[in-house]
Amino acid sequence: MNRMMWIVTLSVAAALSAPLPAATSQRPNFVFILGEGHGWSSTSVRMDDAVAESKSSYARTPNFEKLAQTGMRLANFYAPSPRCTPSRATFFTGKSPAQLHMTFINEGKRDGDVPANSRMLPPPSSTELPTSETTIAALLKRAGYATAHFGKWHVGRIDPKEYGFDASDGPTGNGGPDNVDNPHPKQLFGMTERGMEFMTRQVRAGKPFYLQLSHYASRHGGDARPESVATVKGWGVGARDAGTAAADLDLDTAFGMVLKKLDELGIANNTYVIFTTDHGTPGKNPPFTGGKGTVSEGGLRVPFIIRGPGIRPGACSHVRTVGADVFPTIAELARVSGPLPKGVEGGSLASVLANAGNGTVKRPREEYVVHFPHYDKDAVGPASATQLGDFKLIRVYETGALELFNIAKDPGERRDLAQQMPDKVKELDQRLTDYLTSVNAQMPTKNPNYDPSKPTSEPKRGGKGKGGKKNQ
After folding, report:
1. In CATH, what is the architecture of 24-354?
2. What is d(CA 97, CA 396) in angstroms, rounded to the nearest whole number?
């Protein structure tokens, strides 16, 4: 047995017997793929072994299937926000959008305009990540890692190098470096090539790395390569879904290029590969209600797949996990010494990953909160939600309504239990208030000019109707 085979054999043995952070003698690498607007059931990976609808009925993504077969799916993973910028800020920092005061976006469009004669006035929201925040890149860079971010930045106009990234595409927005309507597929494959070149340089230099590849929108209007369109037509996908399926095939192809490069560089066994997305798909997200821009499950439940040293292949975890957990998880897996930055709200998933998906995640607070005090794609208007155990409370700011759902039994949020369980409503509502107060969250206020005798000039869009009734 040569020396390299001996090292690999020892690494595999250690991965099966030792705690996850000590699975290899070398510090691991990280490749974090952040999709844009892909919901829980948007790939051909069955995100929950117990739920047949947890995969797409038409998309084919064989490379993401490969990731799931060689890694672990987290069936109950929640994005930090139903919108792009807030979620990305949390993935970078481990802090919630409410704490960062980054609860909305700035697209330069009318998507989130406040309806005339609205009941409430949403608070201001920063779209610039403060440079005082410690990002996962800055944390790992201080620990000796090379760091890079390619693709969609969308947390402000300050260059990523100011946040600890050695290499990047700059502070890009939805239009990418060329500022076009549909950056894909050009930027999809461009960022993939730049990422592979970055990995190659670090392997030659003998340096561990953190690489983040953040996709641009590729669904409902995103461009796809002609060959992907032709392939999808050959599958017999209907005209309504063909464009999305072709764009998803492009995403899968680019992801497969990354996996192949890891194999070619001989570092696949010592690299954690993570795939998740920033929020749910616009529109429907079966089997859930709602989508992008809503605090319903369809806006927040997204895929999460991870493979790497010590992770059991093919495992499916049902432990509730959230976007803020990614920061402390990577920090622990990288064996970063010292305490995490003050205010990190997530907990490390390392013990869950090492235990075939079983266990608990220790966070500063038990409940998970999504604060979205803005008018967007949900008919209820500004709202917040909190989840504790199986129960989820939604607070509607326009009316003061409180809705309660048992997510374990009713993931579609179709049976409001508020009147049946007033004590649980009171408990979760108080927890929500306590949390928002603790982070000095910015809140919506009553519009002093609201006139109930006049209609709003813009109808609200999509999602969840008044009184807990869902619009399909």
Report:
1. 3-Layer(aba) Sandwich (3.40)
2. 18
